[in-house]
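A brief tutorial aside. Many learners find it easier to grasp structure tokens once they have seen a single protein encoded end to end. The record that follows does exactly this for Transmembrane protein 42b. Read the sequence first, then the structure, and try to relate runs of similar tokens to stretches of the chain.
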Amino acid sequence: MLPGVFYALLAGFLGAVASSSAKLSLGTDYLKGVCETGLRTWGAPRASAQGGQTTACDWLHVPLRLLCGGLVFTCNAVMWTFLSKALRYSSSSARTTVTTTASNLISSAFLGQLIFGDSHIALWWVGVSLTLSGLLVLRRASPNHARSPPTSKDN
């Protein structure tokens, strides 16, 4: 059971990393802004774009976007591998689904705050808590096993 939970947690986390990478890859000029902030922080000389000169950030964000796009596909492939392993080692697919979903929601919240500076209001956390509570109720509900027909004794 423990390997199934571990693989489900990793699958949820990798799903969150994949979605964050997609946002970095396809989003607005976030990577370019991070590059410019990094250059200012590290004290690299800035060239003025007004004089026809370009900064490293004017072209560096393109390979970074491509790298993030590759990370989307890689994380998704590894995520599906871990999810299938979690399903194999778990006694219940509902348990795996709940664990993966919970891990994905919480990882997405923390990655969003860490990478993008997102702040989640209390209403968001209430919604996530209700969603996770509903998933736990589904997980704890005992499945209806089909009963085998009663056998009759032949006299």
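Self-check: The radius of gyration is 23 Å. If you spotted this yourself, you are ready for the next section.
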